[in-house]
Amino acid sequence: MTEDGASSRSRPIRSCQRCRNFKVRCSRARPRCKRCIVADVDCVYAFGGTPFTGISPRSESSVELVVSEAQPGNPRHSAKKRRLGDNDRAQVPFQATFMLQQRSRPERKSPDGMRPNSVAKRERAILSCLRCRKLKVRCDRGVPCTRCANNHRKLECVYSDLSISGFSNTHPVHLNNSNALGGVATYFVDNYWDQRFHNGTHWKNLLHEIEELLHRTPGEHTGDLSNGDPHPHSSAGAPVVLSINYPFSDHDNSHQSITLLLNNLPPRSTLEAFIAHYMDTIEKTYHLLDTDAFETEVRDFWSWKRGSAKPRPDDGWLAQYFMIISLGCQAHEFIAQATKSNGYSDLPNRLLTGAEMCLRRTPFLFQPTLTNIRTLCLMVISKQVYTMSCHQSDTCWPLTGMIIRLAMGIGLHTDRLPIVELWSCHERRMRRRLWASVVFLEMRQSLICGMPLLLRPCDVACLSKGTPSPSFNNTTPSSAIENHSWTSSPVSADSEPTLLESTFGTAVPLLIQAIDLATGDTDDPATYTQVVQVDEALRNLIRSSGVGLRPPVFRTDTDWPSSTSIDLEACTLDIFFRQTLLALHSRFVLGSTTCAAAAHPDSGLSSLESALAVLSLQRSLCDGDGCEPAQNSSTAWFAGLFRYEFFTAAMTVCCQLVRGLVVEEGPMAVRREDGPAGIMLEALKSCRDIWSRERSASVCNGKAHALVDKLVEVLQGSR
């Protein structure tokens, strides 16, 4: 075979240049493939980016010659035809016909009259599932289709046209290869999430209740809440793109990647600004770090960066450091987007990946350290503050369970260890504070996901030993962003218990009892009396602690005498207690009859009051209520942690109002504009306006806004 013959039969190049260089699979999407989109680089295809036509450049010139000779009026046509063999006679008409068809088509011109660079393609609707389309077999378009069901590939039966689910123009995620693990989780929409186990505290039960009530509502209302434009497109300025399996993604990176990340970090002043944002939001609420020790470790890190004799920080500390500056960078990006200033859009992703790689290089499953526990807690917080996704939220519950078990493995839940006597009082205090934060993450995530709590009262008994009364005098200065100062104050905040630690020390046994009652399956009529008693005890504890009902949510600082700031720790605990009360009364508020709230008036009023309080806190966090612009933006970013609590509260208020459309008498009936129903409707309008700001951030955000907007329209039309 000649060299020309071998080149004409060579496999055509379909991948982009970057995927070819890295020798990885290319999605071949135009104008940019998926890998180039994730890497935020230019996607260049061979031959000027023209789509593949099935003919290599050298063979195309040969076919051009064959086509010219195959014209009927060509004198060489008859002689050439006699010299062709059987194989060539079978091949030339196909190639010639292909080229003739290309020439016979009328040219499609662009609006400016220029001929396009690429061959136009037919835009046909893709009706088959992606797996059947890839295998080129017939698909019955079922959900799932018969072929995928028979081959036990139900989870791979994904349609690119999701109009049947109320979502359009959504990019699906393929589940048959590793690309699903590295894809954007918020793009993934399927009908199997609803089949996951969720107990009665989950917000999806509120949606089912509202749909049933709308079917019985007098007037021209519809119970189908899936209509409307959910705005599923992801915002271009979203700084974070997390894998669905983060922090256990399939990254094939070496030590060179971590070294490259360390060498490409921003200047020290910029990183200190990121740390200040973290200290002013996340750390002020969860108190995960020993700030004095962390300050010393950061100084040693920069001494090593300057080339001193300091040893290189271990991988466990680097993972924690990357997570801290990643969260601070996300807050910085949120403020930069609000102020139209320049930011670091791709840095959070690289830092999250670097933290994941560093964590995987430590024996954290066999020999976890306090640094590993803090890093995993920060990873859960990063997934929670990440753009709303039902799938990402469900993946946080297994992570918090793993953190609980790792923390128990090093004895954070008990003081009965032989080595305890060797620890200083400061070390004991830091371990107890970290355990309180871990327990809080587990309890909150159980309520969000509608899953059982995997903690026993004896596991948290150490938090109740010697717990002082809560006080607000031990808080740090309101903001560290002003001068990029995040070091500890002269009177260290580590010397006294935090509000989270002291509140959980007195409330955690009652909270475990309340969550057990909320997630239990018993239908004993006596349970309602017990629920009312637990509700009263929780409210008394909230009043005595000062977290809620009389909340010092806005605190005036001596440093800023003319402004007010939001106490994020008090807001977080207030929202958590309100969410616990909503879950506690959920089984008595929801029911198959419209008299569910009337039969249990205490549950109905408690749920409504808690939901309205959460919506009020949402408005305070997102709108600022008199805070300075930088503080307003940082608190609005911090409010992303509570998207599910806000959505549950909004659906609770909607459920009460929709039930009022059916019940024309009683305490839940809809009355005039200035009555209770009018106040509730105004709260929903404010909630809708807040959701509209992030409706383009993800599919779930767009769906949440569409639901609230449609319910507000239905309620306004019935007044």
Automatic annotation (TrEMBL):
This is Zn(2)-C6 fungal-type domain-containing protein. Residues 15-45, 128-159 form the Zn(2)-C6 fungal-type domain. The keyword Translocase does not apply. It holds the Pfam family Fungal_trans. Residues 68-87 are annotated as: Disordered. It comes from Eremomyces bilateralis CBS 781.70. Gene3D superfamilies: Zn(2)-C6 fungal-type DNA-binding domain (4.10.240.10). It is found in: Nucleus. GO terms for cellular component: nucleus. The keyword Heme does not apply.
